Structures are given as structure tokens and as C-alpha cells.
Amino acid sequence: MKKNTISLFNLEDGPIRTTTNGKILIITIDRPKANAVDLKTSRIMGDIFKSFRDDNKLRVGVLTSSGEKFFCPGWDLKAASEGDAVDGDYGVGGFGGLQELPNMNKPVIAAVNGICCGGGLEIALSCDIILAAETATFALPEINSGTVADAASIKLPKRIPYHIAMEMLMTGRWISAEEAAKWGLINHIIPQKKLIQNAIKMAKDIASGPPLVMSAIKEVVREAEAAKFQEVLNKITKRQFLTIDKLYGSEDLLEGQKAFVEKRKPNWKGK
């Protein structure tokens, strides 16, 4: 067990890289070209966040991605078109390893270095603080590929004004880092070159605080919000909503994935 934990905190190759800086765990999504997350990557992220949660020596996590263009576009539609099921096994923490991880009582900071959309935005929303480069952009374009932004549909209207959230969900409109800060979606805009440096500095400031209080804050806030969130998310992922069940079994879902991979306009049939 000890050997496995050490390896998870010092991953140098593969879709996820990790390193520690004192009491800080830095997790980097590294899946060229766009840092999209497939089932395997999601499961790895879940194992990392679970080990981070259970390690008493680590207090704060920083989540970022490689490169300067993409933070994460979310679900890997190419992998989906090749067989990854949209309702498949995402691992212990759900998609991206964090948003459904039980008893996650440690702070995580997202350092958004570029395009953050779809499931990538859902991953960022699962973090406690979001720092973004000035070039970062945000969107929920699932509507354009014929599916629903499941976790974001639950979380985003609670994070920013309802009407702005609904516009993003229903139109797929992109917003800049400046607009994201205006609506309170992100905490601070940081120059790209200083993003990780600032994220680590903030993480160290938080890590220097009382860990039991940090854990209590996380648990109280999470429990206050998550009772209905988990119930609704479970109904989505288990296809208990008639609309979701119809969508996940539809020709349109496959058409949206294929059209994305083939870089063409989807032909929606409503079935």
C-alpha cells in the first residue's frame, strides 16, 4: 500500500502527472492534444484524489494541465466514438476523480491554464478555488453535441446567477476569464506564466492554516449543498430520468460524437 501511494504522488509519465511540494500535491492532466478525459484517465484521477484524501502529510491539492491552450475539454469524444460508454466506469470519484469522491475534506485549487469546457468545467467546479490564466475561456458546449452537461446542470446555477448559467447550458456560449470573474465563477485572473506559482502560493497559505478547521469547513459546506446534488446526479448517471434514458440510448448521442470526431455538422434526428 505504501509503495502504491508513493507512486501515485510521483507520476512522471502517462495521462496524469503528480508531484509534491511540501504539504501540496500538484496534479497535472497531460493528454495531448487537448487534455480530454477518457474512462481510464478518470479512474487514475480518482485513485490519486482518494490517496491524497487519505494521506495525512498532504493538506491541499492543485489541479492543472499541461500546455497553455487547454485546461480540459472534458469527456473524450474520440474515445467515446471508439467504445468508451458515456455511463461507463469513471472510477472511485466519478468523472475526473473528484466530484463524487466521498468525504473529500481537503481543499483543491484549480489552476485553469486554457480552454475549460464541458466536463472540464465540471471538474473545475468540483474544486474549492479556481484561478485562471487571462487566456482561459469557459463553456458548456454539450448542447452542440446532443447531450446534457449533467453535473454542471446541477452545480452551475448555484455558483453564478441562474440566468447566466441557463444561457451557458442552453446555448453553449463561451465566456472569457474576465466575464467568468465578473459572475463569480473564478476567484482570480493570473498571468499565464505565473499561474502555477500563484496557485502553489495560495495552497501553501491554506496548508499553513488549521487542518481540522479546513476539514470541517469542507464537510459542512459539502453536506449543506450535496444532499440533493448526489441524489440528482445518481438519477442522471443511472438513467432514472426518462429524458436522460432516452438520450443515452439515442441515435443522436452517437451522431453527436461521430460528427465531432469527423469535424462536421451533426444531423439531429430527435431519436
Task: Describe the structure concisely.
The protein is 44% helix and 15% strand.
Task: Characterise the protein shown here.
- The chain is of the alpha/beta class and 271 residues long.
- It has a single domain, classed as Alpha-Beta Complex (2-enoyl-CoA Hydratase, Chain A, domain 1), CATH 3.90.226.
- It is built from eleven helices and ten strands.
- The longest helix has 27 residues, at 211-237.
- The chain is globular.
- Mean pLDDT is 91; it is low at 1-6.
What characteristic shape results from the CA principal axes? globular
Order of strands across the main sheet: 1-2-3-5-7-10
CATH hierarchy, class? Alpha Beta
- What structural class should be given to the helix and strand makeup? alpha/beta
Summarize the biggest pleated sheet.
6 strands, mixed
Average pLDDT, rounded to a whole number, is: 91
The overall strand count is 10
Q: Write down the Rg.
A: 18 Å
Integer tally of domains: 1
The CATH superfamily is identified as 2-enoyl-CoA Hydratase, Chain A, domain 1
According to CATH, what is the topology? 2-enoyl-CoA Hydratase, Chain A, domain 1
**Percentage of β-strand residues:** 15-25%
Total of helices: 11
pLDDT < 50 stretches: 1-6
Task: Quickly give the CATH architecture.
Answer: Alpha-Beta Complex
From N to C, what is the helix and strand string?
A: HEEHEEHEEHEEHHEHEHHHH
Helix content: 40-55%
Distance, first to last CA: 48 Å
